[in-house]
Specification:
This protein is an alpha/beta fold. The chain is about 40% helix and about 15% strand. The chain contains 13 helices and 15 strands. A hairpin with a 2-residue loop joins strand 1 and strand 2. Helix 11 runs parallel beside helix 13. The longest helix has 22 residues. The structure holds 4'-deoxy-4'-aminopyridoxal-5'-phosphate. 4'-deoxy-4'-aminopyridoxal-5'-phosphate binds next to helix 4. This is Aminotransferase. Belongs to the class-III pyridoxal-phosphate-dependent aminotransferase family. GO terms for molecular function: transaminase activity.
Length: about 425
């Protein structure tokens, strides 16, 4: 059995003494992580782990090109975006070029929570309405507005009972569990559209509908075909705007699609991005139309001291260069496809595997106690994660039942990393946890 090590235990004791208690940490006895390289993490004892958790680290840990670009920019200049410098213009141009028309206008912030918060503010300004429709089992951030639409009971057990009265929710459109399963999953859209109609009839049509475009928080689950098209049409018909949270699933990780909304064949009015775009550097963005952005002017100017700073902008552009030049989206498609196949094979041999979700390098391995009733194997999943850590694999559960291994490694992962991951899970499922 792995011993977290004296150094790791001492660090945790110091951490618990000074960190606010609500700030959790991974694992019961977490190792002290001191460095990262590509998809690997190394602890203070020199032990190496496969990092299947860090979707934020999109291009890999300690990427030399990013280190060099950031060092050079820090030596030259770092200031705020009220100054006129090339890096911010170049990065904003590149972000705008990644999205379809009519999205053409960029705001730069420092995190996903800020991006979602600003996206909802833009929706309010554009529609003059406060009511928002959100999907259950979602996490969108910790600021007042992004938290208001966060409905995941895994992140906040009291979430559904404590949302403000202007937040309305619809079912998580999960084809594997919930009200409509399998071929019936298309009914989620009908129910959700009916909720929009009900809100409109009650005089409170939503000014915004916000959803992850591929259900990341629920375990990497594709939304039912046509779901976003139906929702976007209904919300717009009643004068609202469609807000896409691409913070986890966007930016090439899905392999087949750069953005989750492409998988659904829709174009949102406002897109919130973060995490992967900075490879761990605090960077977030909102991309919208000139019209929506202009409405926000009625509320004053927008300014973020570090959002779009020269260093942040160079980080953003370098991450994009690496994704393109190293073919990381393509890698997510190819190696992620292989990963999914290998996980499906595990399902043939281990009854605990209820389903394999996801696309590219956003995969979900769902554990259930029995395949008929789909009873979530919550405790088993937690124990499996602890055992996987002992075997040198870092992964964590997600979803309201905490029974889905959320697999979202740095996008440089190769087939040998997939094989190592699958061998470790196979061993745990075979020998016990
Ligand atoms: N949206 C989604 C879908 C997220 O997963 C997260 C973070 N887990 C956020 C927003 C908030 O991002 P951040 O932690 O950068 O504030």
């Amino acid at each position: 059995v792995r011993d977290g090590g004296a150094a790791a235990r001492e660090l945790i004791a110091r951490r618990e003494a000074v960190f606010a208690e609500v700030q959790e940490y991974y694992f019961e006895e977490p190792p002290a992580i001191v460095r990262g390289w590509r998809e690997l993490l190394v602890d203070a004892d020199g032990r190496v782990y496969l990092d299947a958790l860090n979707n934020v680290t999109s291009i890999g840990h300690a990427h030399p090109r990013l280190v060099e670009a950031v060092t050079e920019q820090w030596q030259l200049l770092n200031t705020n975006s009220r100054f006129n410098y090339p890096a911010v213009v170049e990065y904003a141009e590149r972000l705008a070029s990644l999205v379809p028309d009519p999205l053409d206008t960029v705001f730069l912030v420092n995190s996903g929570s800020e991006a979602v918060d600003l996206a909802l503010r833009l929706a309010r300004a554009a529609t003059g309405r406060r009511d928002v429709l959100a999907v259950r089992e979602a996490y969108h951030g910790w600021t007042d507005l992004s938290d208001a639409v966060s409905t995941s009971v895994a992140d906040n057990p009291g979430a559904l009972a404590s949302r403000p009265d202007w937040v309305h929710t619809v079912d998580a459109p999960n084809p594997f569990r919930g009200r409509h399963r399998g071929a019936e999953a298309s009914r989620y859209a009908g129910d959700a559209v009916a909720e929009i109609e009900r809100l409109a009839a009650a005089g409170t049509p939503p000014g915004a509908f916000i959803a992850e475009t591929y259900y990341g928080n629920a375990g990497g689950i594709a939304l039912p075909d046509g779901y976003l098209a139906a929702m976007y049409e209904a919300v717009r018909r009643h004068g609202g705007v469609a807000v896409a949270d691409e913070v986890q699933v966007g930016y090439g990780r899905l392999g087949e699609w750069f953005w989750g909304f492409e998988q659904q064949g829709v174009v949102p009015d406002v897109v919130a991005v973060a995490k992967a775009i900075g490879n761990g550097h605090p960077l977030g963005a909102v991309i919208t139309t000139k019209e929506v952005a202009a409405a926000y002017r009625s509320q004053g100017y927008f300014f973020s001291s570090a959002g779009g700073s020269p260093v942040s902008s160079v980080v953003g552009s370098t991450v994009l260069d690496v994704i393109r030049e190293e073919g990381l989206q393509e890698n997510a498609r190819e190696v992620g496809g292989y990963f999914r196949e290998r996980l499906a094979e595990l399902g043939e041999r281990h009854p605990l595997v209820g389903a394999v979700h996801g696309s590219g390098f956003y995969l979900g391995l769902e554990f259930v106690r029995d395949r008929d009733r789909f009873e979530p194997a919550t405790e088993e999943t937690a124990a499996i994660c602890e055992r996987l850590l002992e075997l040198g694999v870092i992964v964590q559960p997600t979803g309201d039942h905490q029974n889905v291994l959320k697999i979202k490694p740095p996008m440089c992962l190769g087939r040998e990393g997939v094989d190592a991951f699958v061998a470790a899970v196979d061993r745990v499922l075979t020998t016990g946890w």
